[in-house]
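Appendix B. Chain record.
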Amino acid sequence: MAASNKWLMSSVAYYLDFFTVPLFIVLALYLAPIDPVQIVAGLLAWTLVEYSAHRFLFHSLYRREHWTHHVDVLAYIGVSSWRTSSTFAVLLLCAGYVGLTSMFAGAIAGYFFYISVHYVMHRPEHWAYPLIPRLVANHDLHHRKGVEKNFGVSSPLWDHVFRTYVRAHALDGNQERA
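Structure tokens predicted for this chain:
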């Protein structure tokens, strides 16, 4: 499969979410009373959104664009921060309107964890890399050619629920990395 340059972006555009997302979290927590149950529900909801987007969008509808990441894991590939920030702004307004601001904060904190972990897992020299060995192993398997498993990047929870989780010893061992 040929790679696509459609999601290739500048380094500024790539790293912008690392600054804007914490601002959305702080703003959400400032705007309304903090509800720990909603925060946990938001984190859990994020893991399902992450799994679903990765499995059903990135590996089907946007497969060619996502394949670029599989070909060059260090390339600045992703969804533009303008799109994520615009979406988060609308979601924050809606969450505030219906009283789910803490849930929004939890979900966006989950997104921040996802982008942070995904960044680290492709950079073994990063100081945090040794802290996430199981997540790295799961994601490494996901990047092997022919392995359509382990879609959860920040958590394998939904891979277990939907039976798309695989361990290294369960594979043939002769599969190529992609």
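Further analysis of this model is presented in Appendix C.
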